[in-house]
Structures are given as structure tokens and as C-alpha cells.
Amino acid sequence: MKADVSSSGPPLVELQGISKRYGDVLANDGINLAIQPGEIHALLGENGAGKSTLVKILYGVIEPSAGEIRWEGRPVTIGSPVEARNLGLGMVFQHFSLFDELTVAENIAVALSNEWSLSTVRSKLGEISRTYGLALDSDRAVWTLSAGERQRIEIVRCLLQNPRLLILDEPTSVLTPQEAEHLFTTLDRLSAEGCAILYISHKLEEVRRLCRSATILRAGRVVATIDPRARSAREIAALMVGNEVGEVRTDAPHHVLGEMLRVSHLSIPPAGLHGQALRDIGLVARAGEVVGIAGVAGNGQSELFAALSGERLADRPDAIVIAGQASGTMGIDARRRLGAAFVPEERLGHAAAPTHRLSENTLISHAATEVSRSGFILLNAAKRLARSIIQSFDVRTPEGDPQARKLSGGNLQKFVIGREIIRKPKLIIVDQPTWGVDAGAARLIRQALVDLAREGSAVVVVSQDLDELFEVADRMAVIHQGQLSPLKPVGEWTKEAIGLEMLGVAQAQGGAHAL
């Protein structure tokens, strides 16, 4: 997989005047982008800026309305992902496409042409794994692997096809700090061998660590092409959103008061064949503080949220106590009436009904709370409340009261969090509050959660983003294989110590909670 890393010739790939129109919406507007062999090039922009549309065009998923793609100086038409791969493009998507029941080798084989036998895949897998330090056991079933190991399968699957250009979409979103650093080492090595990399991420510090150049999109247009190493993360974020993105303010005077949530010896069996059991969970969240729960995806975060929200019930009432009331066997509406609010990870389909309008989604959420008084609120009142959320949380909507599915991911996330915060709950539990949202939306969401805590609510944030937790949390714990580490003040944690807990190393060593 050698390539000429010299920049004296034409770019490896060049996009010239790429536009994509959907009706009246211009998702991409005359975009120019060039990537040299061996270059690690970042593609940045807030949600809805046009990044996804652009890489789908490059990978042959959708057809541009105008413009030209040049590969090593010659015009090409990329009509499908198969044609993209034949040309030399590989892509690792943010959400993995793997079969849990199959082995590592089988998952790789099904994505390759029929000429690849399973024995050939095993042999090549071992060779690639050794060359790039991507350790994988070819005969392990995928459902037994960590998120980091699953990502390695996706990367190795691409590398076996000898890509000249590798596109990575939010590649560190499910990795521990140690796994992320290992990935960076692999990417540096690929770059040195001549493989170009197009890197999409909202984590600007890692962009500054990895990339030599960055193209920034805003509203479908290129607004800047910069060397990210020469700019601060705040400067880059300002280019992305069009104005300065300040830091989250956490210094407002506040007092930590009584318990709003107590979880005692909570154990719940897995929901399905590959679900994670919760084992003897203990947790306290007090009025006036933000409690952070860190962990790699698949270690019990979704099960913990389901137990705390009432989607799954405990075996006894006192396993979960909300605002002084034993509620382990209560459903969601009963817990909401105690003053609790919940924001699940999946915003479209779980937090919001896709085909319902924002006002209708507000009605669904608030119907069981004090806002309803007699048990329901009128739709007109829900419309007024939805307008207030849209204004207060800077939700950009295509029309006054659109269906939830018509909002970008970041704007829908601001809406569903605002919908819960606006009623000033005593306790709010949020799962992955800024998953896949841009710097501006992330800052607004984090500030709103911190402000809610400073006003006297208890806030529990479950997140895979350690930077986020260090920014907003007062105390933090790590969940690993359904077990929760002791809560400690954020100042007593280091990223290395949290990474070890996330990998289960600290638990295995015994007594390592003192890290």
C-alpha cells in the first residue's frame, strides 16, 4: 500500500465546484477541496454544514448536482461505493456495520469479493494486524469485543482493500484515551506510507494533534482552509459556527444540598442475548451538582439509563430513590411526577417521535408532569411551550413547528434537552448529551446543564466524551461491564486513570480506585 507522498504532482483527489441540491435546500454549494497523497486532512463544520453530504458524494453514495471529482488529475465519476473502493477509497463510518454473531474473520470476508477465502482473510488479517499494531483475534465473535476492537475490524477491512484514501467519520467517539492514542499512531503510520486520510471530527484538539490542513464548511460552503496546528481550538470553533464559542462557565456560586437520587445495590439482568447486566450499582446525586458517568459504549450505560428512567424496573422499590421517594418499581410517568426528567441517547425515535411535530413531542413528554395539572395539556399550550424552547435554546428549524425528523441532529438534541430543562426538574438524567453535535451546540447544551445544577437541580450526565465530563462534572465515576466505580471529585481523576477504569484494568488490579 505504498503511494507517492510527494506534493509536486496533482492532488490525489480534488473536488471542484461540488454542489448538491435537495429541492430548495443547497446542501453543498460550489465546494472545492484537494487532498495530497499522505496528507491527513480534516473536514470540519457544525451540524448541517454539509460534511455528510460531501463525503457521501465522494464515496459514491449520492450523486452531485454539479461539479467534478478528479482522481490523480483526471476526471472520474463515482457511481457507487463499489466503484469508490475499486478506485482506492475506503470509509469507516461512525456507526459500525458488523454482524454480532459472526467472527472477526467472517465479518471481514462478507465485505470482500468472493475470491477471498476465509483462510486467505485470516492470513491477511494477521499480516495487517502485525504491521499496523491493530491486534485482533480472527476467531473471536464480534459480540464479545469492545468498541475499540470493533473499530479495528472496520479499519482492517478497509486496509485489506489497499485504499489510497481513507475517510474516517468521528473515529474516536467510542474509544478510551489509550485506544484513541493507539489509533493516532496507526494513522500517522498510514500517512507516512502515502495513504491520504480525510478526518471528520468535532474533537478539535485531536484534529490539531493529527491534521496538517483542515477545510471548514458552514451552511454548505467552504469558509476557510487552514493549518489547524497554527490555530487554537476556540479559533477553529469560531470559524465553524461564525462567532466565538466561549467556554462553559462553572464558577457560579452554588450549594450542594440534599440527595435527589440514591441508587443502592441495583442489579438487573441483561435485556437480550448480548445486553449488559447491571451489577450492584450504587450512586448518589445531590441537588446542586453534576455527576458524570464515563465509559466505553456497551458497558451498561443504556441499561443504567433504562433503570433510572423507569423503562426497566428494579426488583424492589428502594433500589432507586428519587426526591426521597422509593421509586425502583415505578414507571417513567410516575418518576416524572416526582420531578425527574430523562433524555435518552437516541434522539430520533426514542427521545422524539420522528413524524410528530415539535409541539406534539412536547405534549407527549410533559403530559404526565405538573405542567399538565389535570393530566394533559392542550396542544395550543404545547405549541407555545415548543416556541419557547426553540427561542431559549437557539433551535434552528426549517419552519415554525416542523416534524422532529426535519431537524438536524444538533438542533433536535438542543430541543429535546431544552424540553426537559424548561420545566426545571429536581433531577435530570441525560445520556450522551452532545453526541455528534458541533462545538456551538455542545457548548449551549453543557452550559444549560451546568446552569440547571447551579440553580439547585441534580444533574447526571452519562457520556463517552471525557473532555465533556471534565468540563461540566463535579464528581465522576466509570462504568465497566455493568459495574460502577466509586464516585470521586473530578479533581481527583486523571484521563489516564479514567482510561484504565474504562478498560477494566484498574478493577482487575484491585485497589486501583485510589488512582
From TrEMBL:
Pfam families: ABC_tran (PF00005). Gene3D superfamilies: P-loop containing nucleotide triphosphate hydrolases (3.40.50.300). Keywords: ATP-binding, Nucleotide-binding. It comes from the Bacteria. PROSITE patterns: ABC_TRANSPORTER_1, ABC_TRANSPORTER_2. Belongs to the ABC transporter superfamily. This is ATPase component of uncharacterized ABC-type transporter. It comes from Microvirga lotononidis.
